Amino acid sequence: MSTVPTGTNVESYRVIRNKHVGRYVAAVVTVLLLLSVVLAFARADIDWATVGEYLTAKSILTGFMVTIYLTVISMAIGIVLGILIAVMRLAHNPVVSWIAWLYVWFFRGTPVYLQLLLWFNIAIVFPRYGIPGIYEGRTVDIVTPIVAAILGLGLNQAAYTSEVVRGGILSVDRGQDEAAKALGLTGLSSMRTVVLPQAMRVILPPIGNETIGMLKTTSLASAIGATEILNEAQHIYLVNNLIIELLIVTAIWYLLAVSVLSIVQYYIERHFGRGHAAQTAGVGLLSRIQTVLGTSRRNP
Amino acid sequence: MSTTDTATSTDPLVRLEKIRKSYGSNEVLRGIDLKIASGEVVCILGPSGSGKSTLLRCINHIEKPSSGFVIVDEEVIGFRKDARSAGALRELKEAELARQRRTMGMVFQRFNLFPHMTVLENITHAPRLVRHVASRKARERALELLDTVGLKDRASAYPGQLSGGQQQRVAIARALAMDPALMLFDEPTSALDPELVGDVLEVMKKLAQQGLTMIVVTHEIGFAREVADRVVFMDNGEIIEQGPPHAVIDDPQHERTRAFLSRVL
After folding, report:
1. Is this complex scored with an ipTM above 0.95?
2. Three-state secondary structure call for residue A246
3. Which of chain A's residues have a Cβ under 8 Å away from the Cβ of B178?
């Protein structure tokens, strides 16, 4: 809001950049807070050697693998079924659309913990499975804690994923579907090759978040006896009473897995962002981190 | 180039029979009859809201008419003759309608290129997926078409990297790749910056000269006068008058046509 007297040469002015004082203040405060937390942990009665020891203990590693396995299978079910339910929800057939609505209503309307317990005890409702006389068996024989966990987590996830996918599909301009149909594509191939790939750009960030959420939600499966990492850690500390140490061990593995997932998410998002080049394409992860840290030489 | 007289004397490529379309109580098309001969270029003019875009979208059933029939190349679009009861028409399944649409190319006001595909992929997508053309043949044909619209060097670009005029020319190439018998243009230059309109119209003029049947909804009076065999003026969901461009544009018979032209010319 300054006035430059006419006749002065603007180019001769010296430019004084903003100092960004706030950033320095925030950095100092953060460092102090972190230090106090680190000190608290350092002074607490924590046997760090035990943490290191149990970090690679066999049962912890097996538990971690189960956690990863549960996450991958449940998310796979959640995504595939979620897309199906989203497409059903948007279908012209009112019955199909209603079924999808009902599914989401039920699985989103009850806690996932309750659903896990429900699946684990499903044998009470359906004691036998299969086609009577041809192929059947006792339900308790197949619904192990792991199977119950996969069903509970996967089917619950599908309800959430379907809403994300539906939002993504609706975000794609109607003209895209019209153009595909004008070219002679059927509704399904238009959905598969034109609409969904574009919806992905909108769908993926929340799916990434939900995968990370799922990784942690699998810990609920310990309640029905699935031997994932938290369950294994509990088994150990109930015996040796090294509670904090084993919880730290578990936390380290979760953090590690979430970090890896975040990196994977970044590259997948970049892949589906193609054609919307400017924002992401050609910008590597390193330079993005630099941008966040403010060390980039690109436009700050 | 054919004239209106020959258009009505020979079997028309496109026949619109009493097309009506309403959205709720709002009647957008009030019984449109129109015949278009093979090789004819018809420009549809009219004020916005006159129903001309809706009419165009009814021809390939992107919009389904509330009543009336579209007959293209002897086929009733969206229906087939019922085998069991003579004189009855049965609504088509979606896949069959998709097959019928392949004979009609469409170019949209907002281009509607697929942003996640390169220019080349945009053009080869439907031929490969729908007609099962081998990828190399589809590619060769696409490059040929890109050459026609003057964009051979942009084959690997994404639509987002092109100007509006370039995008629209790619969209024309994409529609042509299905070898349509008929091209529908829905205000193809309305979303373009003025300096880019010329390139697109130039391509369309070239197609007209090659004998392609074209129905063009447009506000470009100059283009209609120069290229059209026939100009159709619509207002309020009806055809008010039609005829050779010099008649309709330079010597309009109806008050509404005169009022419209005096505003746009």
Report:
1. no
2. helix
3. 183-184
